[in-house]
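As described in the Methods, two query proteins were run sequentially through the folding procedure within a single session, without resetting any intermediate state between them. The first query and its resulting structure tokens are shown here.
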Amino acid sequence: MNVREAVGAVLISEGKLLLVYKVAASDGTPIEPFWSFPLGGTDGEPHDVAVIREVKEETGLDVAPPFEKCGTLEYLLADKRTQHVTLYLAHVKGTPNIHPIDEHEISEGRWLTPQDAYELITHDIGKNVIKELFL
């Protein structure tokens, strides 16, 4: 089985969660848009390094370890590989203004109450994470 390792960040600031609206794959290929936690491949780096990089690329925000592992997701990618995502809780440093660096991949981000994030997030696996951690 061909597996792509990835990390995701459940970002918290002032009691709100951040969701991003993904409109393209990391290579720029258009996809069916969806609301998600910031996430992406590890590129062979340690998870804490990948979390910092992915959060910066997708939101422009800075986070710092320690990160608390809070769940895992698995799903099939368009190229038929399995994506295995380890999710980490992360608190945002500084002012939580969102400025995606990968604008071809992320069109917007929103800080939401846990209930609003639960209603907006696209996939059931994300809903389950929010429900288990915050509702």
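Immediately afterward, the second query was submitted; its sequence and tokens are:
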Amino acid sequence: MPPACFGARSHSANVAICIWAFRVAAYMSPMPPNRPLLRPLVALVGFVCVALGVIGAVVPLMPSTVFFIAAAGCFAYASPRLEAWLLSFNFIGGPVRAWRERGAIALPAKLMASAGMAVGLTLFALARPGVLALAAAAAVLALCALFIWTRPG
């Protein structure tokens, strides 16, 4: 069964793309039987998202939960068994279920995302970009922070 809703809680500059992809995933129907090659492709994308999520759990400033949410969406579309497997891990399933049920982001995740955005913007500013580029990056990150902090906890 596909999830009720998806969305991004990423602290990267690609949040807009993630939000769009997750909103599209929210309206996906279960795998149609007349597209047998699509199932393995969607499952493969899900496994790539799981790998990126694991990397994000280890690498500073790289999001992880957003990739696990995307993987759960892919698995819900391709294989409910794979979705159940992913959600069986408490450290993955908990945040994904909270997002699906209430659109919730835990306070520690909000704090880490905000800190990551601040560090990222600071490092970007230290690279001495143009004023317009810095203003655009700050505006995008401010919108991302607004999105994150307006989600329930």
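The helical segments are 15-26, 38-58, 65-78, 80-87, 90-102, 107-126, 131-149. We note this only descriptively and draw no conclusion about the first query from it.
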